[in-house]
Specification:
There is one protein chain. The chain is of the alpha+beta class. The chain contains 3 helices and 3 strands; from the N terminus they run ααββαβ. About 25% of the residues are buried.
Length: about 160
């Protein structure tokens, strides 16, 4: 004989299913948001590395095309193009920290000396993959700038390619 008694139904059957259905979309959005955050951090770090790598070349070889190519080669996963890399050279005591004013404190090739600043700015438009984030921000501008003094002025009239 079975001595266990059945509990009466209290109308709470399925409560956890309803709670799960309410909470699941929030959890999915948080997880996807974390993926987007990770992708954004990866994009920024890769962009910063590309700017630094290109600036290392600009310190000894002031050819803008080669410096731009070095930046693009350092960030293959971002799809960086030559339009996303700005390279300029400024005098040592400039307050300029980007290439937006090419004539201000410019250090032209003919007057370039050790100590002029090589400025490389890499920038992209980051597109979030999470639908909610992309509804608010269709794209986010990410940029990184690297500034270093020129250590060697390449004599182009003697060498077509700098050592």
């Amino acid at each position: 004989m079975n001595t266990r008694r059945r509990r009466p139904l209290t109308g709470r059957n399925g409560q956890s299913l309803v709670e799960f259905a309410i909470v699941l979309p929030v959890i999915v959005l948080v997880v996807l948001g974390l993926f987007d955050l990770g992708r954004g951090v990866f994009a920024y770090n890769t962009l910063a590395q590309a700017a630094r790598q290109a600036n290392r070349l600009a310190m000894v070889d002031q050819n803008v095309d080669r410096v731009t190519t070095a930046a693009i080669a350092s960030a293959p996963s971002l799809g960086l193009t030559s339009g996303g890399v700005d390279v300029c050279f400024k005098v040592a005591d400039t307050t300029q920290r980007d290439c937006s004013s090419p004539t201000t404190d410019n250090c032209p090739q003919a007057d370039r000396v050790i100590g002029c600043l090589a400025i490389v700015r890499a920038h992209i438009s980051y597109v979030p993959m999470t639908p909610v984030l992309s509804a608010f921000w269709s794209s986010i501008q990410i940029a990184s700038t690297s500034i270093e003094p020129i250590e060697y002025v390449c004599p182009y009239d003697l060498h077509p390619v700098c050592p």
